[in-house]
Amino acid sequence: MEISEKLLCLFSTEVSAEEDRYVIEVPRQEVETGDIDPEEVYRVALISRDESTDTEGTTTPAQPQSAPSEPQPPVDVGETRYVEIEDIGKQGDGIARVERGYVIIVPGADVGDRVKVEVTEVKSNFAVGEIIEETF
Q1: 97 to 10, 25, 26, 86, 106: CA distances (angstroms)
Q2: Residue 113, number of CB atoms within 10 A of its CB
Q3: Distance of CA 74 to CAs 77, 90, 105, 118, 122, Å?
Q4: What is the pLDDT of residues 98-110, one digit of tens each?
Q5: How far is residue 26's CA from residue 92's CA, in Å, rounded to a whole number?
């Protein structure tokens, strides 16, 4: 599956029924980090979790997965994220938080910086990101 470079955020959510319409809730973090403006209109793509797409573009049933014993990191190596630095760690690196308070350590960033980072390392409780764009 090819992902557009225009992708602003990616999250899992439920579709809920409200009177004569269906609603998709956007996590507060996506708005607070500046990725989403609640006054704007966005294009939304829905990807089924029950099917996966192979390289030929055809759909095949997804392989059953056992439930992980603990939540998986919300980022992957190579992923890019727009983050705001909220704190400075003991080693002087910037600290950003994404979904569920997961920490991304950003060397060379200062509190208040809003940067685009590429995730270079992922651990169960934190990730490391390299700045690829100073401000956004």
Answers
A1: 15, 20, 17, 7, 11
A2: 17
A3: 11, 23, 14, 14, 9
A4: 988 899 999 999 9
A5: 32
pTM: 0.51
Cα 22–14–125 angle (5° rounding)?
A: 150
Instruction: Enter the tokens of residue 134.
Output: 């100073």
DSSP 74: S
pLDDT of residue 27: 78
| Euclidean distance between CA atoms 77 and 91, whole angstroms | 22
Residue with structure tokens 């996590």? 27
Which of 69, 66, 65, 98 lies closest to 81 in space, CA to CA? Answer: 98
CB 42 within 8 A of CB 9: no
